[in-house]
Design brief:
Bound molecules: fe (ii) ion
Radius of gyration of chain A: 24 Å
Strand order of the largest sheet of chain B: 1-2-3-4-7-8-9-12
Helix content of chain B: 40-55%
CATH topology of the largest domain in chain A: Outer Surface Protein A, domain 3
Helix content of chain A: 40-55%
Order of helices and strands of chain A: HHHHHHHEEHEEHEHHE
Largest sheet of chain A: 3 strands, antiparallel
Number of domains of chain A: 2
Oligomer: heterodimer
Chain lengths: ~250, ~280
């Protein structure tokens, strides 16, 4: 019995995603709503909805190429990458990998990097929050001797991403954020970038090689003492991390 | 008071966060699209926390896929439960629809045939959700653009049967009744007459778009006169249940929504006063 519902649902979705039209046989056709139109209404709504979600996740890409170009790109992506996740917010991870395969994008070689950056902005936007006074509390405990410095670890905050990009697309992101578009050269230029969020504000910063290595390693907790040993610029990196709120101090007792 | 929330609420939309927090408009409650707050943190939660300080809220979701053939998503339910614990909504609702198969998620509210088998399927799933959440949910009737040859019952009997047997509430979307009645040629009044009034715990009002030969439920326009009329009838039947002005696309400024809310309030007052008067007359007899 349940199998019947299951089969119907699979056929319905295949029809909605224009993969199969068997489903129309299950429908009543009326003068105003023939079965083919019914399916078209649902297909159109699904496509528009998913396309809108992509536009919200990749607003800079959309601004750069314009609505019509973006819609064509999004439609082609949706056709080759069907949404399967529970949440529409989780859809679009592979958009940046898809873009180089979409022929018209070949004249905009920096666009895949832009999509990579925007996907990370989206992750950082929704990431878990950290208690704003956490580091101050740990530092105080360390100074008062309540916590042994050897037991302290550092880790990136959850709302942080480290990126290595071939184009300086963060310039486009910043212009979008400020709504101040200027002519900017998008030439090949290796860029290591940090993206992090404090409260509701997202920041970006170009990283030095050492800072890139620092944040790349801090995607998992590392002992403070080992970081001190391994990073020549430890004092600066540590101070900057605390001041930015991009690292979290963990005290394991 | 029959319910913890009363009167006409509005959907909480990110476009209005700032205005709501700055002006604290006189709105009795907000409906929150649960699926927009399933992320771990950040701006959506910061604003929802702040709004929640001043207003009661309800949760309205599109992601449960209550009619789905696959098992309910434990991850989705877990997130929903965490949100409920954090924000304590007065009501929790989703739709009498499904959205996914193993190969796809349409993120759309897709209808199923109206049959005993499908009733039973919904009943089991709604009960699972209610057990998992430890409280009752409301299910909303859809606007639809197709009917199944397989259906052997009316939509209103289907909705009523599911609600009674699952022991859940009904979120009666009056605009959806109107849209589906128009699209499929049934009577909106007959629909209303046959809905168990005692199960209706919330009403939705929204605007549709006229297309060539059918109506499209867009949630992107003012409520149409025919829907206001149907709302009057619905209130006369179900009494003073909270009502939501639902507006999700081409979202206007808050003042426009407040004007729609005022219209719903006026109708509510009129209908409920009339109801009261007629009850008094009855008492005198
Ligand atoms: Fe609704």
């Amino acid at each position: 019995m349940k199998n019947d519902i299951f089969a119907l649902q699979t056929e319905f979705l295949a029809a909605v995603f224009e993969e199969d039209d068997q489903f129309s046989q299950r429908l009543n056709s009326t003068h105003n709503l023939p079965a083919a139109l019914s399916i078209k209404i649902y297909s159109g709504s699904v496509l528009a909805n998913v396309m809108k979600a992509l536009g919200e996740i990749f607003p800079v890409c959309k601004s750069l190429v314009g609505d019509a170009f973006f819609e064509a790109m999004a439609e082609s992506y949706i056709k080759s990458h069907r949404p399967t996740k529970d949440r529409l917010d989780d859809y679009g991870e592979s958009f940046s990998l898809f873009l180089p395969t979409f022929a018209p994008v070949q004249s905009l070689p920096y666009l895949p990097d832009m999509a990579t950056l925007e996907w990370q902005v989206h992750q950082v936007f929704h990431a878990k929050d950290v208690a704003p006074d956490n580091n101050a509390v740990v530092l105080q405990k360390m100074e008062s001797g309540e916590v042994d410095p050897l037991s302290i670890s550092l880790v990136n905050i959850p709302g942080l991403a480290v990126l290595s990009l071939a184009y300086p697309v963060q310039k486009l992101l910043e212009m979008y954020w400020l709504d101040d578009w200027q002519e900017v050269a998008m030439d090949l230029e290796d860029t290591q970038l940090l993206l992090w969020r404090n409260g509701v504000n997202i920041h970006s910063q170009v990283l030095t090689e050492e800072a890139y290595r620092w944040h790349s390693q801090l995607n998992k907790p590392l002992a403070l003492w080992s970081l001190q040993e391994n990073f020549e610029g430890f004092n600066d990196l540590f101070a900057t991390g605390l001041q930015q709120g991009s690292i979290e101090m963990l005290a394991t007792s | 008071m029959k319910y913890q929330i009363q009167g006409t609420g509005l959907g909480l939309r990110s476009d209005h966060y700032q205005t709501i927090l700055a002006e604290k408009p006189d709105i009795p409650w907000f409906e929150v699209m649960t699926d927009n707050y399933m992320g771990a943190g950040g701006q959506p939660h910061a604003y929802l926390e702040a709004v929640r300080q001043d207003y009661p809220i309800t949760f309205h979701g599109v992601g449960l896929s209550l009619g789905g053939g696959q098992p309910l998503s434990p991850n989705y339910l877990q997130r929903l439960k965490a949100l409920i614990n954090r924000y304590e909504p007065t009501l929790i609702s989703d739709h009498l629809s499904f959205s996914k198969s193993p190969q796809h998620n349409s993120h759309e509210l897709l209808p199923l045939p109206y049959t005993e088998q499908v009733v039973q399927h919904f009943v089991e799933r709604i009960q699972q959700v209610q057990e998992g959440l430890g409280r009752q949910i409301l299910v909303e009737n859809l606007s639809s653009y197709l009917t199944f040859k397989q259906s052997d019952m009316n939509e209103w009997d289907f909705v009523s049967e599911v609600a009674k047997r699952a022991d859940c509430g009904i979120l009666l979307d009056v605009n959806n009744i109107y849209v589906s009645a128009y699209n499929h040629g049934f009577s909106s009044e007959e629909y209303l007459d046959n809905i168990p009034a005692e199960r209706v715990q919330e009403i939705h009002l929204a605007g549709y778009e006229e297309q060539d030969g059918y109506l499209l439920d867009t949630h992107g326009a003012q409520v149409y006169p025919a829907v206001w009329q149907l709302y009057q009838k619905a209130l006369a039947k179900v009494g003073d249940v909270p009502t939501l002005i639902e507006w999700d696309t081409d979202i206007p400024n808050l003042d426009c929504l407040i004007a729609e809310k005022a219209r719903a309030d006026a109708i509510r007052q009129q209908v409920l006063e009339l109801k009261l008067t007629s009850q008094e007359v009855k008492c005198e007899e």
